[in-house]
Amino acid sequence: MAPPEILPPEILSIDGCAIQRAAVLIRAGQCVAVPTETVYGLAADATSGEAVARIYAAKGRPSFNPLIVHVASIEQAAALAHLSPAALSLADALWPGPLTMVLPARAGSPIAALATAGLATIAIRMPAHAAMQALIAAADRPLAAPSANASGRISATTAAHVAASLGGRVPLILDGSATQHGLESTIVAVDADRLRLLRPGPIDAAILSSIAGLPLSTEAAAGIEAPGQMASHYAPGKPLRLDVSTPQPGEWLIGFGAVAGDDTLSASGDPIEAAARLFGALHRADAATAARIAVAPIPMQGLGIAINDRLRRAAAPR
């Protein structure tokens, strides 16, 4: 018997009809790709274990790696998790936006255990992108939505990246052009006496500490408690070498600032531009004929900390 035909995904420009089409699929337990202000997400009903399982299957993602649950309001978040005064301060100041908080889950929360990887905490974000907000409203439920790419590979910042990475494993991609930030959200665990930075991102850690009125630590728990903590992640299919000013033969150089290359994150050395272009540049390098990839040095300050975090995981042995 011939294997079942794998159909390419439907790709729709975002309008009201496209959002409704996506919401119908969500309510039927399917997953769809949708842009956020950070990267494209692979969204499904966070309250359905079967729907969440389809995310894991599409991505080839380990089930011990929890997902971020996206909500439409602080009230919706408070129904799923315990929001301390510090968490409420962060939500009031930075939501909607690229901040994910890891919080104690409420007893009886409707979120599927598979979405939280069976942990007693839940990772929650209120996205700012109009398409994601509209999809949460139309589906009328919180949405689990990791990055829309095969697990461990380069995150998607365009609809074309999603199609190339996931192909027929996702029925629908909502095309909202390139994403704004180009890096996944900042993730912080809000404990009773401190914040713990679990993943650097577009929001600077010092801002978080100031708003919450709590000290910030980079100490993580022994196990994985949030997305993006695996040692090897965001990886191209080729070997990747970091902090390179002069490439070796056979390397595709991604430049930054004064270090020119075959491509560049930012010729002017602008970290905001570099973050927005990072995953696109890695996709182009992966598609080039060169056998290896090299990346110019990025200063370890401000947004450069988040960029270097992604590059270090992309270059890790696997």
Strand order, main sheet: write it out. 2-3-7-4-6-5-9-10-11
Helix content: 25-40%
Using the coordinates shown, work out and report the CATH topology of the largest domain. DHBP synthase
The top level CATH class name of the largest domain: Alpha Beta
Average pLDDT level = 91
Class of secondary structure makeup:
alpha/beta
List the quaternary state of the chains.
single chain
Beginning-to-end CA distance, first to last residue: 35 Å
Question: What ranges have pLDDT less than 50 throughout 5 or more consecutive residues?
Answer: none
Under CATH, the homologous superfamily of the largest domain reads DHBP synthase
Sequence of secondary-structure elements:
EHEEHEHHEEHEHEEEHEEEEHEH
Question: What fraction of residues sit in β-strands?
Answer: 15-25%
Question: Would you write up a description of this structure?
Answer:
By secondary structure, this protein is an alpha/beta fold. The chain folds into two domains: 10-217, DHBP synthase (Alpha-Beta Complex), CATH 3.90.870; 240-315, no CATH class. Helix content is 30%, strand content 19%. The protein has nine helices and 15 strands. It has helices at residues 16-27, 49-59, 74-80, 85-94, 130-139, 159-166, 205-212, 271-287, 303-315, and strands at 10-13, 32-35, 40-45, 68-70, 99-104, 121-125, 143-144, 172-175, 186-190, 195-199, 216-217, 240-241, 251-255, 263-264, 292-295. The strands form three sheets. It has a nine-stranded mixed β-sheet with strand order 2-3-7-4-6-5-9-10-11, with helices on both faces. A four-stranded parallel β-sheet has the order 12-15-13-14, covered by helices on one side. Strands 1-8 form a two-stranded parallel ribbon. Helix 1 (16-27) crosses helix 5 (130-139) and helix 8 runs parallel beside helix 9 (303-315). The protein is globular. The two termini are 35 Å apart.
